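Record Transposase C of IS166 homeodomain-containing protein, 394 aa.
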Amino acid sequence: MARYYPRMSSTSPIDLSAIPESQRAAVLALLQENDALKDANRRLEHLVAELNHVVHGKRSEKLSEDDRQLAFEDLQTAVAEVETRKEQTASSTRTPRATRQRNLGHLPADLPRIERVIEPASLECPCGCGRMHQIGEDRTERLDIVPAQLRVLVDIRPKYACRICSDGVIQAVAAPRLLEGGLPTEGAIAHVLVSKFADHLPFYRQSQILARSGIQIDRSTLADWAGTAAFHLGPVVDRLAEHIKSSGKLFMDETTAPVLDPGRGRTKTGYLWALARDDRGWGGEDPPGVVFTYQPSRAGAHAEQILQGFDGILQLDGYTGYDRLTRPSRNGGAPITVAHCWAHARRKLKEVFDRDGSEIAAEGLRRIAELYRIEAEIRGLGPGQRLSARQARS
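=>
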């Protein structure tokens, strides 16, 4: 007797013998597809429950930003899997359905195009008239990714000598290297730096990735490469800081950074101080830029040191460590003019409103929202136009 056993153990088997044999295969396929969709649905319910826990759970149980992003990616992957399965089912049963909206992205025109022409199996006319002629074509573009390619660059320096005299041997000087006698090219070192500091890929993971291609390089070696590169990049960073501090208005903020504490077997808290310029909002001509400086603490003296030579307007949060920058006795120059941040002020009002439902806090939030709306409308205008708009409307 033909029976189908659903994946749910509590469900009784289904007798297929009563179904005509000509329809049995189609029914079986639908039953299997139904089970697969139930599995996918259970997975989605589980992921949604996890996300609800992330959003509404206790503070101590909430995930980090990276973990939250991974959870959302898992949910998006599961949804895509279910949608694809539905499309495959609709295609096999020839049931019309609405076209699924996809975020296909945009493929830049400067990307190289590798064209593949797919010809029919035969170009002979079915009615025997002869060979068909091309009257058009359909073009479909898809994004392709070629995995990172490892290769070895071999420098060959021929030696030359005269067959007649004995004046010696000549040979070209070896090309300069960032690491004298070292293994990597400058391109390899740049890849390690970008992977570490832009893509947040630790050295031990980079070492594992290289090992999959048969390249055994210890993470301590990768760290040595990065340290050497940092030394040579020092003048570039200094010049960037000098260029940014020549501006009339800057932003500054600091954030924590875990740092290994040798000898203690754990990490300690350091700070990355960011000094940034972005004049695009008011039609400035200088390009945006940011320079980061590591310091072991959040002491205001570090801000003084970083800002030596700057005497413009500095936008900050309300951290009291910056107060020393406005004093006549400021170390490193004249007192700095401080501009505070509406976003930080709004945050405090939001905390009061969420805690007490204060009408005063609510009114403050409404007024800040109106200021935000006005600023959005005048963004990109020149200083004079923005000043006039603010005096008239804000």
